[in-house]
Specification:
The protein is about 35% helix and about 20% strand. With about 400 residues, the protein is α/β, with parallel strands linked by helices. The strands form six sheets. The protein has a five-stranded parallel sheet. Strands 10-14-18-19 form a four-stranded mixed sheet, with helices on one face. Strands 13, 15, 16 and 17 form a four-stranded mixed sheet that branches. It starts with a helix and ends with a strand.
């Protein structure tokens, strides 16, 4: 975000909603938890775009804007919202909770923020978009149809449509200054030579097409989501940066071959402060899974990796890296099993690397990292086949080592 903003650039969100969060610390150590807002709001020089692929809970957006303004972050004039983005209503949240309750012991682990039902409305073509706010009479008819459809499936949903319509009449006025054709805006910005940073939410292994289905999100937090969620053609992509922790985490249910259990798992969770930005739920933690990382590198065509939170592993005497899966008598190193049953039964093939047993949070130069830490990063790079350019060694903005 800082690089894009330095040139008066743009930071754009392409998919998801308020189900994922980005935790950012400024140079003074102030913590910001962002959900719908792109991280560029924290740099006064950046324009921020919420693209058409995002599902927007308008009350939540205004709450987040208010929270930022209370911390001295001004949003006015620096946020654009796609007129093609779909609206996420409280109705979707109710449906989300009821669907999850029906699953009983087979729950997906949804955040219950209404994301899945909102994307379902989009796919079944009875969703409402931001552009619909400009046509109140049609908006009323479309919302009534949406509510009626949901109540056929869940008759007990409590929903006051009159109150919702009254609220959205006011929201429409407040949103008007932000609404634009973001496809046109982004293409103009690109033609003007502005730097554009595109932010994904969730992760590729939660991609509805390529992830651990059905334990996934409802959109495409992978390279294809940029094309559909922002209308940016692949010919405009330059650097494609994959962000991966030096270990792995997961929120919610689903197969997790390299998961760490017991006291060691709890230790990594506490040191890494691995609790969901959106839900506060404890994240599950595990060793780095090279099979999964190779797989997502293929899908996204990463040019570089940003390996974060290396410092979290600093106190461990040895570190394991999952380099293969044994499934049905075969060893897989880069092919990701499609079936949940195969993933759950997979036996992980591990390499064990020495730890470095010293604090690296103050290191800023590659040469100053302990030899074992350098070897860990280099081994990851060699196994994956994509250069690791940046290494995170702490939560601060300056806690970055550039690999030389």
């Amino acid at each position: 975000a800082a690089a894009a903003a330095a040139a008066g650039g743009v930071v754009a969100a392409l998919q998801g909603g308020a189900n994922a969060g980005h935790t950012i610390y400024d140079e003074n150590g102030t913590k910001y938890a962002l959900h719908l807002l792109p991280s560029g709001v924290l740099n006064k020089n950046a324009m921020n775009v919420i693209g058409n692929g995002v599902v927007v809970h308008v009350p939540g957006l205004f709450e987040e804007i208010a929270e930022m303004q209370e911390k001295g972050v001004q949003i006015d004039g620096r946020l654009l919202l796609s007129d093609r983005a779909h609206l996420l209503f409280d109705l979707h949240k109710e449906v989300d909770g009821m669907r999850e309750a029906e699953l009983a012991g087979n729950k997906i682990g949804t955040t219950k923020r209404g994301i899945g039902p909102a994307y379902a409305s989009k796919a079944t073509r009875n969703g409402l978009r931001v552009a619909d706010l400009a046509h109140p009479e049609n908006f009323k008819v479309k919302l009534a149809a949406l509510v009626n459809d949901a109540q056929k499936r869940f008759p007990d949903i409590p929903y006051d449509m009159d109150a919702e319509l009254a609220a959205y009449e006011k929201y429409a006025e407040r949103l008007r200054p932000f609404i634009t054709d973001t496809v046109d805006y982004l293409h103009d910005a690109h033609e003007q030579g502005k730097r554009i940073l595109i932010e994904g939410a969730n992760a590729t292994m939660l991609d509805v097409d390529h992830g651990t289905y059905p334990f996934v999100t409802s959109s495409n937090p992978s390279i294809g989501g940029i094309v559909t969620g922002l209308g940016m053609a692949p010919t405009k992509f330059e650097a494609i940066i994959g962000v991966a922790k030096a270990y792995t985490t997961r929120v919610g249910a689903g197969p997790y071959p390299t998961e760490i259990h017991g006291d060691l798992g709890e230790k990594v969770r506490e040191v890494g402060r691995e609790y969901g930005t959106t839900t506060g739920r404890p994240r599950r933690v595990g060793w780095l899974d090279v099979v999964a990382l190779r797989y997502v590198c293929k899908i996204n065509g990463f040019t570089h990796l940003n390996l974060t939170k290396l410092d979290v592993l600093s106190d461990l005497p040895e570190i394991q890296v999952g380099v293969g899966y044994k499934v049905k008598g075969k060893t897989l190193s880069s092919s990701m099993p499609a079936s949940i049953e195969d993933l759950e039964s997979a036996e992980v093939v591990y390499e064990t690397l020495p730890g470095w047993k010293q604090d690296i949070s103050g290191v800023r130069q590659w040469a100053d990292l302990p030899k074992a830490a350098q070897e860990y990063v280099q081994r990851v790079e060699d196994l994956v086949g994509v250069p690791v350019k940046w290494i995170g060694v702490g939560p601060g903005r300056d806690a970055i080592v550039i690999k030389s």
